[in-house]
């Protein structure tokens, strides 16, 4: 288990996420808004590429390519002096952490990748064993937020008292490297704890809390019926629990719930009362951020206007 | 049939179990041999809940070196959610074993048509340094998500600017990603997969799959849990 005291607040490379950039750019700006105000030293580097997660988990990328791309991103992080890779997406987190483990422990793969770098004239990307540590160089942005809840509390402007909120912790954060989670991977509470600091009333347990979002990489596209059935199961459970706000930490889950909630409502003839946002958007909002100029709620499929009006934000 | 060689994901071994253990897709500490067929994986599995998919059965087939598992549609139902990876009391990881099985299947030309949909992800990544939902996926999303989403996407660049971001998510990879993809053999494999798909004439096949959204799980001659004869009773 990770210790909360071990979470760094400096030299963080805020790892850009393709799905955040293309679907919910407000997640990136909200994270930056909060980091800027709670004393986090971070940078964003445009040289960083996609982690390959989408291609890796749709089976088109082989492991060697994925790990080589990761090694390149590690070189980018080290070169700019921000070696603590901090992800907005849980799949980037898992892919990078696993790639680092293989690079450190599998000499054959490491040497093959370094040989490729040298052949291509990319000596500056060469990865030496233990250049990065899979346990201490990789974080999810939600871990940084949790380590700074006292700062968040001090700077809170809006109080979300009485907001019934539920967390969806992302599978690739707590089920891939399950020994390296802040808290118990059978019942992660990171989002709940942060939301409670902002005044929300978190539903700490609900039926099917650890069920996946249903996106399943190729599944949403190849087996859409099953994919949406899985998503519906959790939405049904949240509706039963009277939840008004579902809080996410991964753009893939966020797409699945926010974009597909209206689709499920139509296809299954049901109606849901909850809205969706990322935990960084929720924290930014409670610290006084503009819902459209910082949080970017205009890119959401389930409209948030009613929620924002009820809570006196707009 | 000519096989594609993918020495790190699917190292050549005598049995499926050995390949799975040696593959870089599975954890180095994979507890495959320690599997006690308890079914915690299947009990935790979202695909098992809604289809006949069974990670426990798949692990059993792998341990028995039953290569018919490669032909099974079942291996294409996994969500890669890693619930089985978390819950297995013996440190086994059905989810990563299934990743290896899919790779072996593809190397043998089985199920290549499942990849058609996603092939452009690699080319886009090489060119732009980022990934995106492939074109066919965008079409499906446009159909499912309708006007509101199309408007959101049309306004994306101006929204990003309003948020203080660059209008597009720019990645300056200096051609390094392209060079890496070429040198690791990614494009060579992509070419091989495309040729295989053409050989199988699966373009039509894919079209049917994506548009009809048929549920394909469950009709593949796997013994179901109910039919499993079990062990003879031990009597004193």
TrEMBL record, chain A:
Residues covered by the Cysteine-rich domain: 13-94, 166-256
Q: Which UniProt keywords apply?
A: 4Fe-4S, Iron, Iron-sulfur, Metal-binding, Oxidoreductase
What InterPro entries does the annotation carry? Cys_rich_dom, HdrB, HdrB/HdrD_reductase
Q: Which GO terms describe its molecular function?
A: 4 iron, 4 sulfur cluster binding; CoB--CoM heterodisulfide reductase activity; metal ion binding
Query: Broadest EC class?
Result: oxidoreductase
Identify the EC number(s).
1.8.98.1
Q: Which Pfam families match?
A: CCG
Pathway assignment: Cofactor metabolism; coenzyme M-coenzyme B heterodisulfide reduction; coenzyme B and coenzyme M from coenzyme M-coenzyme B heterodisulfide: step 1/1
What is its cofactor?
Answer: [4Fe-4S] cluster
Q: Which PANTHER family match?
A: COB--COM HETERODISULFIDE REDUCTASE SUBUNIT B 1
The protein's name: CoB--CoM heterodisulfide reductase subunit B
Taxonomic source organism:
Methanosarcina thermophila (strain ATCC 43570 / DSM 1825 / OCM 12 / VKM B-1830 / TM-1)
TrEMBL record, chain B:
Give the CC-aspect GO terms: plasma membrane
Please give one Gene Ontology molecular function term for this protein.
4 iron, 4 sulfur cluster binding
Q: What is its EC number?
A: 1.8.98.1
Q: Where is the 4Fe-4S ferredoxin-type domain?
A: 26-56
The record's section on InterPro entries has: 4Fe4S_Fe-S-bd, 4Fe4S_Fe_S_CS, HdrC_heterodisulfide_reductase, HdrC_iron-sulfur_subunit, Helical_ferredxn
Cross-referenced Gene3D superfamilies: Alpha-helical ferredoxin
| Alphabetically ordered keywords of this record | 4Fe-4S, Iron, Iron-sulfur, Metal-binding, Oxidoreductase
The answer to whether the entry has keyword Phosphoprotein is no
Q: What class of enzyme is it?
A: oxidoreductase
Q: Which Pfam families match?
A: Fer4_8
Domain of life, source organism: Archaea
Question: Is Iron there in the keyword field?
Answer: yes
Family, according to the entry, reads as follows: Belongs to the HdrC family.
- What PANTHER family does the record point to? IRON-SULFUR-BINDING OXIDOREDUCTASE FADF-RELATED, IRON-SULFUR-BINDING OXIDOREDUCTASE FADF-RELATED-RELATED
Please identify the protein, giving its name as recorded.
Answer: CoB--CoM heterodisulfide reductase subunit C
Taxonomically, what lineage is the organism? Archaea, Methanobacteriati, Methanobacteriota, Stenosarchaea group, Methanomicrobia
């Amino acid at each position: 288990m990770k210790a909360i005291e071990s979470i760094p607040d400096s030299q963080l490379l805020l790892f850009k996420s393709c799905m955040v950039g293309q679907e919910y750019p407000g997640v990136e700006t909200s994270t930056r808004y909060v980091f800027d105000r709670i004393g986090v030293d971070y940078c964003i580097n445009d040289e960083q590429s996609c982690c390959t997660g989408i291609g890796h988990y749709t089976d088109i990328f082989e492991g060697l390519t994925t790990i080589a791309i990761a090694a390149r991103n590690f070189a980018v992080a080290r070169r700019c002096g921000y070696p603590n890779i901090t992800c907005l997406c849980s799949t980037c987190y898992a892919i990078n952490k696993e790639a680092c483990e293989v690079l450190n422990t599998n000499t054959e793969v490491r040497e093959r990748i370094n040989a490729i770098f040298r052949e291509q004239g990319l000596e500056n990307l060469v990865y030496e064993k233990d250049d990065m540590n899979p346990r201490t160089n990789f974080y999810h942005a939600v871990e940084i937020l949790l380590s700074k809840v006292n700062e968040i509390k001090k700077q809170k402007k809006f109080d979300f008292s009485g907001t019934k909120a539920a967390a969806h912790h992302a599978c690739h954060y707590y089920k891939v490297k399950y020994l390296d989670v802040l808290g118990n991977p059978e019942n992660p509470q990171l989002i709940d704890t942060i939301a409670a600091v902002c005044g929300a009333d978190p539903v700490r347990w609900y039926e099917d809390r650890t069920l996946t979002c249903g996106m399943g990489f190729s599944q949403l596209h190849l087996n859409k019926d099953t994919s949406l059935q899985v998503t519906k199961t959790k939405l049904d459970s949240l509706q039963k629990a009277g939840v008004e706000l579902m809080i996410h930490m991964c753009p893939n889950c966020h797409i699945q719930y926010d974009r597909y909630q209206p689709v499920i409502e139509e296809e299954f003839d049901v109606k849901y009362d909850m809205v969706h946002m990322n935990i960084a958007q929720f924290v930014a909002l409670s610290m006084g951020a503009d819902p459209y100029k910082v949080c970017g709620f205009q890119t959401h499929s389930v409209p948030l206007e009613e929620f924002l009006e009820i809570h006196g934000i707009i | 049939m000519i096989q594609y060689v993918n020495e790190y994901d699917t190292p050549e071994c005598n049995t499926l179990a050995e390949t799975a253990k040696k593959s870089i897709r599975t954890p180095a500490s994979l507890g495959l041999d320690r599997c006690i067929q308890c079914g915690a994986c299947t009990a935790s599995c979202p695909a098992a809940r809604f289809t006949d998919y069974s990670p426990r059965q798949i692990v059993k087939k792998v341990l028995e070196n039953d290569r018919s598992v490669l032909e099974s549609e079942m291996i294409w139902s996994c969500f890669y959610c890693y619930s089985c990876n978390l819950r297995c009391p013996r440190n086994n990881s059905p989810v990563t074993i299934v990743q290896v099985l899919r790779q072996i299947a593809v190397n043998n030309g089985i199920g290549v048509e499942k990849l058609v949909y996603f092939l452009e992800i690699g080319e886009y990544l090489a060119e732009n340094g980022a990934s995106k939902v492939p074109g066919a996926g965008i079409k499906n999303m446009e159909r499912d998500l309708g006007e509101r989403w199309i408007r959101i996407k049309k306004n994306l660049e101006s929204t990003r600017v309003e948020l203080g971001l660059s209008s597009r998510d720019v990645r300056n990879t200096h051609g390094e990603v392209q060079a890496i993809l070429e040198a690791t053999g990614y494009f060579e494999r992509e070419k091989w997969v495309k040729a295989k798909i053409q050989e199988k004439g699966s373009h039509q096949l894919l079209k049917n799959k994506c548009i009809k959204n048929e549920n394909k799980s469950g009709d593949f001659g796997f013994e179901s849990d109910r039919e499993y004869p079990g062990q003879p009773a031990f009597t004193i």
